[in-house]
Specification:
Blueprint lengths: L3 H13 L8 H11 L6 E5 L5 H9 L3 E6 L2 H10 L4 E4 L12 E7 L8 H11 E14 L4 E2 L5 E2 L2 H10 L2 E8 L1 H13 L12 E10 L16
Parallel strand pairs: 1-2, 1-4, 2-3, 4-5
Antiparallel strand pairs: 5-9, 6-7, 8-9
């Protein structure tokens, strides 16, 4: 039997669509155009939830896939949908992978709800190979720190780009997709789901692709060792 978390996801899925984020697979495809990953690339989805992105990648690419999420019920839903992806319980701030594991790492509509964003970005830099790619899509604050309620601290564009630069990433693509955010909000409202925690925050929605140029997280004082 599924618990309330998994049942709630399935309820929203039926009302809203396959990927519970603005743009869905279309933004994933846009990022893949920039990355131009060869077959056999090792790709992770951090905060994979019920596996929407991984399912799309299984159907359209020949990648070696891994998904990480902090919800065991959602991972169970993902496991029932996916065929090849390796699914792991974990958090973005403490990824259960060795250093320089992935050719590309996706984190779609998740970073905004991570408690310790600097730690998550440190981990992304640790597990992405030199020359590999980081793909982020999420809400951001249009003016300085944004706060969508006590649980949400949103990065501005300047803060995010500066944080990535400090960790050895060069941004290849930055696109703003406010129309997709508005369309998603409307679908959620019609599905009976509230977005009040983000109301009045001056939000925008971005797609970012960055390439890791060098390993500098240890020099920056991260000090994390590879994980088994």
């Amino acid at each position: 039997m599924m618990n309330d978390t998994a049942c709630n996801w399935l309820e929203i899925h039926d009302a809203v669509g396959t990927c519970l984020r603005p743009g869905g697979p279309a933004l994933t495809e846009r990022a893949l155009e920039v990355c131009d990953l060869p077959a056999g690339s090792v790709v992770a989805d951090i905060g994979c939830g019920a596996g929407g992105t991984l399912l799309h990648l299984e159907r359209t690419r020949f990648f070696r896939l891994a998904g990480v999420d902090a919800s065991a019920p959602l991972l169970a839903v993902a496991a029932a949908r996916l065929e090849t992806a390796r699914l792991v319980y974990g958090r973005a701030e403490n990824l259960p992978f060795e250093q320089e594991t992935f050719d590309a790492l996706f984190c779609e509509c998740v970073l905004s709800i991570v408690d310790d964003k600097p730690a998550a970005l440190d981990e992304f830099a640790r597990v992405v190979k030199d020359g590999g790619f980081l793909v982020l899509s999420d809400v951001f604050s249009k003016g300085g720190h944004g706060n969508g309620g006590d649980a949400y601290w949103l990065l501005s564009q300047e803060e995010l780009l500066d944080s990535l630069s400090q960790r050895g990433f060069t941004v290849l693509l930055w696109e703003v997709h406010d129309r997709l955010l508005k369309e998603f909000a409307v679908r959620m409202i019609f599905a009976g789901k509230s977005l009040l925690q983000f109301s009045g925050c001056g939000l925008s929605y971005y797609l970012l692709v960055a390439r890791k140029e060098q390993t500098i997280f240890e020099a920056a004082g991260n000090g994390r060792e590879g994980k088994s």
